[in-house]
Amino acid sequence: MKKILVPTDFSPTAQNALTYAANLAKTLEAKIHLLHTYELMRKTGMILSIERHIVGQAQEDIAEESARATVLSGINATTNVRKGFNDEVIASEAKKMSSDLVVMGTKGASGMKEIFLGSNTVRAIKYTESPIMVIPDEAEYQPIKKILLAADSNFFSDAKAIQPLKFLMEKTGATLIVLHVEDGKKEASSTPFTLLLNEHFGEGNYEFHEIHKPDIGRAIMDFTYKINADVLCMIHHYRNFLDRIFKASTTFKTAFHTDIPLLVLKD
Length: 267
Prior knowledge:
Layout (H helix, E strand, L loop, with lengths): L2 E5 L4 H17 L2 E8 L6 H29 L4 E6 L2 H11 L4 E6 L4 H6 L3 H8 L4 E5 L9 E5 L12 H10 L2 E8 L10 H9 L5 E6 L3 H12 L3 E6 L4 H6 L3 H8 L4 E5 L1
Parallel strand pairs: 1-2, 1-4, 2-3, 4-5, 6-7, 6-9, 7-8, 9-10
Antiparallel strand pairs: 5-10
Helix pairs in contact: 1-2, 3-5
């Protein structure tokens, strides 16, 4: 985890996410790369003049944020200002720079807003291949001592998916607590859950808890508060088109409601 991409729109939420990312980068000895995106719908002489102003102002703002990140992390931060749709540019920039982690802020949403409006953060989770850490707008950086991994019976299919988590544990010395929430539906698993955990983390190197609750998202958040976790980690499984339409994703729901940083790994 040597390269951290931090998208910013210079809002207080984004500034808070950068503060968290810079402190995390210092711990991980990683480099920060800031990205600002902007959109223009038409190309006319007036619009081009406006674009020059937008880009000029963005370059000034991102330079200030870069200087702040450099002071906080102790490592020179780099920047880029790109035109395009936010989620697409973030995905492209993350791939271009081979980022190990994307850190983004979120203000959250509720009710019908969550379903129909979505958020830049959730769209980035969907389309970006790199792991993403979501920072709520009121979350403050603190040393990471407890990481809660909320995993389903599928867990993951690719061992690479959990490498960022293992690296984070190694660099911070954090305790891993694994939570398996069973919603009451019987689902067969080809590989016993704990055997996978033992294989990839080592027997005795984690705590394991299993609870039965119908509302998986609520159960995860309640347990997060109960153990006072510093980071909640979830694994995003890619689904087919029909699944995406008819089945709500616990990962995406949690991104709106978590009060602590949410690390989303990609499987």
